[in-house]
Design brief:
single chain, two-stranded antiparallel ribbon, 2 helices
């Protein structure tokens, strides 16, 4: 199997997926004729602000604050292996 699960797990998940699909089918039977769409239930407003260019620390100051640097760059642990 591509997911690397056992036959026993596959049987268990199959039952769980069937139960989930049955639940969605049950929801499809609910009468929503007179229910208005709820496109924005939180009444949230746009909280974005204009981008404003402000002074920042220099590259040299930034590198001084980095826990590990090499040749002017921040050095971080490798995140991708030899896979």
């Amino acid at each position: 199997m591509r997911l690397g699960i056992t036959e026993e797990e596959a049987q268990k998940f199959s039952g769980q997926f069937s139960a989930i699909i049955e639940y969605f089918n049950m929801l499809n039977e609910v009468d929503t004729e007179n229910v208005p769409p709820a496109s924005d239930i939180a009444n949230a407003e746009n909280v974005l602000r204009e981008d404003v260019v402000k002074p920042s620390m220099s590259h040299v100051e930034f590198i001084k604050n980095a826990p590990n640097s090499e040749r002017g760059y921040v050095k971080v642990p490798t995140v991708l292996g030899d896979e």
